[in-house]
Write a structure and sequence with these properties.
This protein is α+β, with helices and mostly antiparallel strands. Helix content is about 35%, strand content about 20%. It has helices spanning about 5-15, 25-30, 35-45, 80-90, 115-125; strands at about 65-75, 95-100, 105-115, 135-140. Strand 2 (about 95-100) and strand 3 form a beta hairpin.
Length: about 150
């Protein structure tokens, strides 16, 4: 586990807010010299604390008008059933996130689609035909007042 001090926390907070800012700007925001800041960022990357940098896309600009969280329960609690389900989900571009969770279901998915009709098609023709699926519950996202994913 990486040792993260207060300055590293500030660096990570700033990079989470804007991963494209220059090292000079980042140094100014965290109160270090540019060279010290760069060394710290490189060390955080080397330790795997910073796994990468991503573009944050606008769902509307990408044609996404419908987002839902979907819970999926499997009909068999076996490694083979989980692996088959995960392979199928990996091929579905509508599934933006797939999490294996504890509780009354096995998976929590974040699904994005153009609209309700597009989601219904995916729900019926992709998810609904997987032989491992026993139960599906959909939670439609109405708004996301806090979303720190990048």
């Amino acid at each position: 586990m990486a040792k993260i001090d207060g300055i590293d926390q500030k660096i990570l907070q700033e990079l989470r807010r804007d991963g494209r800012q220059s090292n000079l700007d980042l140094a100014g925001r965290v109160g270090l010299s540019p060279s010290a800041t760069l060394r710290r960022v490189q060390e955080l990357e080397r330790q795997g604390v910073i796994k990468g940098y991503r573009a944050v896309l606008s769902p509307a600009a990408m044609g996404v008008g419908f987002t839902a969280f979907v819970t999926v329960g499997l009909n068999a609690h076996t490694k083979a059933a989980q692996e088959a389900f995960e392979r199928a989900i990996a091929r579905a571009p509508q599934v933006i996130e797939c999490h294996n969770v504890t509780g009354t279901v096995e998976y929590l998915l974040r699904v994005e689609a153009a609209d309700l009709a597009d989601y219904k098609h995916w729900h019926t023709e992709v998810l609904g035909v997987l032989p491992q699926v026993q139960s599906v519950t959909t939670f439609v996202v109405m708004d996301s007042p806090k979303d720190l994913r990048a």
